[in-house]
Design a protein that fits this description.
Rossmann fold, 4-stranded parallel beta sheet, disordered N terminus
């Protein structure tokens, strides 16, 4: 009996110790889906900017992040290992399905995705529209390769996991975390070719800040995201072709004809100013819209809102156009591709641009 009492006393002391309590507390489970990019890149020379994206696999990336295991139980899976300039609709569908599969499991609390920065904002916006769980999904990347003198990837992964394990990250849709800043996928865009400060939410500002795992949230998202959207990947094997045409002075309307003849189901115009374009191009797009191709007026300008015109040269009601609002051309294309899996009605699609 004395031996039993002594054993019980020792066990009680151990259970009350801070070290045991920390170990006993359940750490959240975060599953990392890696797609390559600069964050997994390696330089060809230590004195050269040139590097190859997607050199390292997910396990190698996770090993570079100090103290990651104190934030969460992190597992990794390689979906692709490419430069994000090679991202495709097929990979979007694969990634979106895998995100939904992983989040169904009660053992998974959040998903982190590593991604190249060139098309990161498009992938993140796609995921915020098709993820059917309120569990956090966070996308991270880096502007410097893993072999750089001061790589930003490890810090972005660490902060990304911190955000993914934040209780307040639930229901916010897909989030983007780089350079100590949290962005909603809908709002963020890349603004600098090489600087680590490149990602910004120009019209609305960031969703929050994260520093050494401390997370501060700002304004909530007022558009439908995640499980609140009407989009689903069920039965979707491909996405409709949507082309983006960049507007400029003396633009040739033959570009519209080329998109139509190439099989476009939708055309997004990166217009000048408030979504404008030369008159011959406007006429060609009007003809395309009347033939059943959905035309969206966006803008090549970095910030601002493309407004729907009720009169004048851009009478969107008369021409059957959709306007992008705050969405830039790249994200307008993503939303239009998903919208076209539901309808070709420009009025219904316009409502989606207001909602998402």
């Amino acid at each position: 009996m004395q031996h039993t009492a002594a054993s019980f006393f020792c066990a009680l002391v151990l259970a009350l110790s801070p070290e045991f309590q920390v170990q006993a507390a359940r750490l959240p489970n975060v599953h990392v889906l890696a797609t390559g990019g600069t964050i997994a890149g390696a330089q060809t020379s230590t004195i050269s900017y040139e590097y190859k994206p997607g050199t390292y696999d997910v396990q190698a990336l996770l090993k570079t992040v100090p103290n990651l295991g104190k934030l969460a139980l992190v597992t990794g899976e390689q979906i692709a290992n490419i430069g994000s300039y090679d991202m495709t609709a097929a990979l979007w569908l694969q990634l979106g399905r895998r995100v939904n599969e992983v989040l169904i499991s009660p053992d998974t609390d959040a998903v982190l995705i590593t991604h190249g920065t060139d098309t990161l904002e498009e992938t993140a916006y796609f995921l915020t529209l098709v993820t059917k769980s309120d569990k956090p999904v966070v996308v991270v990347g880096s502007m410097r390769p893993a072999t750089a003198l001061s790589p930003d990837g490890p810090a972005n992964i660490y902060n990304g996991v911190a955000v993914a394990t934040s209780a307040d990250a639930r229901g916010k849709g897909t989030l983007v975390v780089l350079n100590d800043t949290i962005h909603y996928a809908r709002n963020v865009t890349k603004t600098d070719t090489t600087g680590v400060h490149t990602f910004a939410s120009l019209n609305r500002g960031p969703a929050g800040l994260v520093h050494t795992a401390a997370v501060d949230w700002f304004e909530p998202m007022d558009r439908k995201v995640g499980s609140a959207t009407e989009f689903s990947l069920d039965g979707i094997n491909s996405l409709p072709r949507v082309d983006i045409l960049y507007a400029y002075a003396d633009m040739n309307p033959d570009l519209v004809d080329a998109a139509v003849h190439g099989g476009s189901k939708g055309i997004v115009v990166a217009g000048t100013g408030d979504g404008s374009m030369p008159t011959p191009v406007l006429d060609a797009l009007t003809k395309a819209a009347k033939s059943g191709i959905v035309v969206v007026r966006s803008t090549r300008v970095l910030s601002g809102i493309v407004l729907r015109h009720s009169s004048g040269v851009f009478n969107d009601d008369e021409k059957g156009f959709v306007v992008s609002g705050e969405l830039n051309p790249a994200k307008s294309r993503v939303l239009l591709q998903l919208a076209l899996t539901k309808t070709k009605d420009p009025l219904r699609i316009q409502k989606m641009f207001y909602e998402y």
